[in-house]
Amino acid sequence: MQQPFVESTPGEVRRIKEAAERVFHNVNQVIVGKRESIELVLIALLCEGHVLIEDVPGVGKTLLAKAMAKSLGCSFKRIQCTPDLLPSDVTGIHYFNQRTSAFEFRPGPILANIVLVDEINRAMPRTQSSLLECMQEQQITVDLETVSLPRPFMILATQNPVELEGTFPLPEAQLDRFLLRVRLGYPEVGEEEIILSRFQGSNPLDELSSVLKAEEILELQWNCRRVYVEQSLRQYISALTRATRSHERIQLGASPRASLGLHMASQARAAIHGRNFVLPDDIKSLAVSLLAHRFLLKTDARMKGQTPEDIVEEILSLIPVPAEEAGRSSDSTS
Amino acid sequence: MSLLGMGAGYLLAFAFNKLFKRLRWKPRPLLIVNILLWATLAFAQGGGLGLRVWEWPTPAFIRPECLIAGGLLWGLGWRFAYTPMRFTTLIGEFQFGLVILLVASFLDAQWAAKSTALVPATLIFFASALSGISISHARERNSWLSGLSLGRWIGFLGCCVGMILLTGLLIGVAVNPALLRILLSLLAKGGQLLLWILKEIFEFLNSLIPPPKPVELPGPSGMGQIRGPSEAPILFMPDWLRRIFRIIWGVGGLILVLIALWQLSSQVFHWLRKKLGRAGDEEVEFLTGAFREDLSNWLKRIFRALRVRWPFKEKRRVVPGLVGAEAVRRIYRHLLTWAAESGCIRQAWQTPHEFLQNLNDLLPEGRFEFTFITQLYVQARYSLFIPGEDGLRQLQQSWERIRKMRSSPKRKEPPSE
């Protein structure tokens, strides 16, 4: 029987906010600044989504992933992607145990709560494809045997966008499975000095302790899903994703999975900000990180140097936000 | 006297009951005193209930109707005394009074009563209603009388009163029997011309159809005796049935006219409400709701007195435009309109929080008020939150403060897209 839908209470949302603050504080011991990036990773965690951390080398992609994993008191595994990595190295294999004279399953690193897939675009496409099932369905199939993954489950993948030698671009199907693409960027003025002083004696990552338990995360995820989204905001989300499908410079628009993702991510952002209802600001602030990696630009647009981020910004400036207008109310989003 | 006398009854009922309200009398003594007062007034005017009660200009007119109308007006005056003197309520009462006035005019015309008191009664009604509304508005301290729209409101009031007086004067001067005769004769000539044109058209059409061939009729021997229709009526309707049908027809017609009047005044007030809403931030109740509510309350009271259970389902009364979240949205709309008039237009892609920055730039001293209104608006608009009375009061006060500040807003260019 379906459980009746009840909106999350302010108390539940307050607990999410407090938990988020604990994680921010903990990760900030290692990562200087970058609150927005940490927030995006946390949003993905609350939505049971996966994150693709993409940036130039040396800005702290792996460090962020490791700091997040350590802050969450869950099992953590790392997959270092190389061109010779095989799907079975990810999922696990059945091997013959001579003692018991039977085939036994040896789980791969994917069977953990938090999985860091480092340099994902260095793995061969067939290895990358082995992640498709686990990212969407939270299960793996090995030799006709389906194994459920532990919950919560999150993949934190990193990739370097500038290096092309020896890399394999991620297929669209896989990119679509990443809820958010996070870009860290270089540190702000003054932040670099703090990094230098912080890492002078020892690595602060070693001293990091967990601040959130797996059960707690599951509860927070459930509460996030019950954050109220007003009808016109759903229409707004739908209008945004539809706009990517009909845009003249986009070859392949965002999927309904993107709409679902934007819906859930907005709920999580609202909860992290201590609200039990979503605002259009939540949707707008997530749109670039959530949509830009999901669609393909046409060749002429790429040749003109336009980026998916530019297109999303353009769409955001075209779609009216459902709010009152001077003299009359506006509920619908065309 | 007649109609003016009834009007006086209304005013007296109002005055007496205002006094009784202060004395906090219980319902039963109040009812008895009201009946006694009304009877005294009737005696004073007619010289005795059985003789010349509520003398109507036409002596042949049925007096009990006048008696009932007088009683009704007394009751309405009584009811009005217990109505809270708020601007929105008074606008509703104004609508209600206007309908009664229209009904009185209609009945006066239908029964050819030619009451001379109708014009002064109308003038008194409008003058008292408009002044009452202005006073109540001023008492609520959010009056046009104390704001920027002072000129607009005074102008509106002056125009209304002036127009009513002028119309009354014109009708009094210009409409005389000779003019009416000319108008009627012109109307008749026009009708005759129309009929002649129609007749010509039908004759022309008739000439296009070939005449039928003559048919030989059988001889008198082959035919039976043909009975004329008058000899054997198909349907005989007795007089009493015909009278009932006539009454039903009359009542039906009257109801249709009343509905038309009701709809007409509702539309007029809907338009007026929109206009007023733009000028200030007032919302008034639709006539339909007010009238229905009054009628059902009255019927309920009768049912209660008869100790009979009210047969219909109780519905919670929802005053359109005044429910928590809607009130917040309305004030935010006013804020947007005000900002747009000051040159700061919210772009369609801007969220309320993004627009808040523009508002703060427009009027930095209103930063706190803008933030408060925006916060309450986003809660009311995007969540299930229903603001309470305190919240609404604070919101109203914030909006009032902005309206006072706006007398000299720093005009800025609208935000670039």
Report on the architecture of this protein.
The complex is a heterodimer of chains A (334) and B (417). Chain A is of the alpha/beta class and 334 residues long. Chain A has a domain of 100 residues: Magnesium chelatase subunit I, C-Terminal domain (Helicase, Ruva Protein, domain 3, Orthogonal Bundle). In chain A, 43% of the residues lie in helices and 16% in strands. In chain A, strands 3-6-9-1-10 form a five-stranded parallel beta sheet. Chain A has a two-stranded parallel ribbon with strand order 2-11. In chain A, a hairpin with a 4-residue loop joins strand 4 and strand 5. In chain A, helix 2 packs across helix 10. Chain A is globular. Chain A starts with 9 loop residues before the first helix and ends in an 18-residue tail after the last helix. The C terminus of chain A is likely disordered. By secondary structure, chain B is mainly alpha-helical. In chain B, 69% of the residues lie in helices and 0% in strands. Chain B is built from 13 helices and no strands. Chain B is extended, with a radius of gyration of 31 Å. At the A-B interface, helix 11 of A face helix 10, helix 11 and helix 12 of B.
What is the structure about, briefly put?
The complex is a heterodimer of chains A (334) and B (417). Chain A is an alpha/beta fold.
Distance between the termini of chain B: 69 Å
Most extensive chain interface and residues per partner: A-B, 25 and 26 residues
Distance between the termini of chain A: 36 Å
Class of secondary structure makeup of chain B: mainly alpha
Strand order in space, largest sheet of chain A: 3-6-9-1-10
User: What's the level 1 CATH class of the domain at 228-327 in chain A?
Assistant: Mainly Alpha
What's the pLDDT, averaged over the residues of chain B?
72
Oligomer: heterodimer
**What proportion of the residues of chain A is helical, as a percent range?**
40-55%
The chain-level structural class of chain A is alpha/beta
What portion of residues of chain B belong to β-strands?
under 5%
Helical run tally of chain B? 13
CATH superfamily of the domain at 228-327 in chain A: Magnesium chelatase subunit I, C-Terminal domain
How does the overall form of chain B come out from the CA principal axes? Answer: extended
Low-confidence stretches of chain B: 47-62, 279-286, 316-322, 408-417
What gyration radius of chain A follows from the Cα positions, in whole Å? Answer: 21 Å
Rg of chain B to the nearest angstrom? 31 Å
The biggest beta sheet of chain B reads:
none
Number of strand segments of chain B: 0
Unreliable stretches covering 5 or more consecutive residues of chain A: 329-334
